[in-house]
Amino acid sequence: MASRCLYRATAGDLANVTSAGHLIRELRRSFNELIGGKLDDREVESWRNSIPTVVELLLEAGLAEVQVLVEFKIPITDVRMDLVLVGSHPGNGRMSVVVVENKQWEWVRPDPGSQMVHAPGAPNSNPRLHPVRQVWDYRQVLIDYIPLLKQSAEVSCIVNMHNATGETLATIRPSAMGLQCDPLYARMYGKDHREQFKRALRTALAPEKAAHYTQELLEAPVLPTGGLMAVVSESVCHRSVFPLLDEQREAYDYVRGAVTRSKQGAPKEAVVIVGGPGTGKSVIAVELLGALNRQGVRAVHATGSRSFTQTLRDNVERVDPRARRSFSYFNSYTHATTNDLDVLLCDEAHRLRETSRKRDTRNGYDDGRQAPPQVQELINAAQVPVFLLDEHQLVRRGEVGSVQLIHDTATAMGVKVHQIDLRHQFRCGGCPEYVTWIENLLGLGSQQGPQRWLPLDTFELYVARTPAVMENFLRTKLTQGHTARIAAGFCWPWSEPQHNGALVNDIKIDDWHRPWNSKADRTVNGVPPSSLWATDPAGFDQVGCIYTAQGFEYDYAGVIFGKDLTWTEQGWRSDRRANEDTAVNGAPRFDQLVRNTYRVLATRGMRGAVLYSEDLTTNRLFARLGVPVLPE
Question: What is the pTM of this model?
Fold first, then answer.
């Protein structure tokens, strides 16, 4: 996977294109070819107003041959950096890279009690990520994920605040706000700092070998992102591990600021963090848990998933057995003292139930109708309750978690709510195009119905004619050092193990037979328990379902569509009779739940996915939409 940008040119050539009035046209064309979708007018305005302010300084500094990469993107995410300048370092001749973040803000001021700032254009006067923090994170991502830069390059970053005065910027000095960013590598300049900005460019860049180094950068291998479970123990027990960019960092900083304000006596506040698959909700939760606990803040993580929580516990327990206590369940707070915790991180909050009472299969909820709502218990339990959710991941009857529910309950309790929406994609090769395609395919997206698949260079998608072909492809990926799993819709019975503990091959498609994952809570005959199916290498030999796949990720996802959702001439048809999950097939919203289920299963892969439907017409639809067919 290679990095890419919307436009590459020397500073001199870029100045000529700009003066001829062609820059915006060229960027629009490149955007449509490489990214597609709707282009934000504010982004175009930034190109028009901000890029020339940097190019002019490069020319004045004698750096016309320095290479400029406009809207630079690396494959682990769909985040784009405004400008990346490439040349050689004047002091040692090594590759030198300068990341530039352009801001058109005319004014900015610090947000009291946090490391965030207030600036023009923020909805509801919400605080925003500090621009130096933003560009410093970009620098860290480049260093962490492109080994070439860590080994043989100088990497620095600059915030170009070309409309703001130095007096204004002085109010948000990184050192005064406690930002841990090395001032030698991260700087911020306003409109009356042009000479200082120019000197900084001369100090960091020389034109020699600029074209050569730029080509090396664009072709340099990019390390794949590690899965959450692979490094969760390091993140929780020792240090920050995951790169947090833009809205992720904003959410992280906002929660930490809310903790500070609560300790200073501010009114109670709930934080709602909303995002689709792969936008980093669980990463934010885990990073917050580790950072807050290391600061002595009483923070606990909670979910409604036994598999997810148990896997988190097992991973951290190997490093620090005490850290196991940091992971709990939503129904653990029935009798919690008000504000007993400083922070409660409610991950996968779409899985909230009406109440925390256990369901009695004969009599319904045992007096559960009089029990307080589960969301109320969670808000009550912490001074800063945090909810992270994706409403399109409601896949079971009885799950009620929604943004509206949290807002309404908190308001009724007299608790203020702050919401942060995550936009950027960190799974699926950093390609929101794939997630959008899946959502449109299933009738969950903004466009009407399935759309043609346009191949991407950062995410592999295939259709298999048989499940055996899918399995062989994924097994090959395993031999190449990747992780892979096959998951299916709940369209086959799920038998109890045989007397010797062997699993029954319940999933039968022609001559291909495989078992569901184990129901056991321990390893039996080398088969991992259900909670470890997604992370234990031995889990590949069983097929997972929504109960074991949701919340997890692996490099390659195989998805078997059962006959509970099939394509017809009239569109999608859902069939309760084909679904074996009694907790779902009797639900009033069955059609919505089954579509959500396949959306979740299809978005577990970080590098690729393979689709197969037991229904021939549906499988042909995938191929007809342009998805490459795996050879048999």
Answer: 0.78
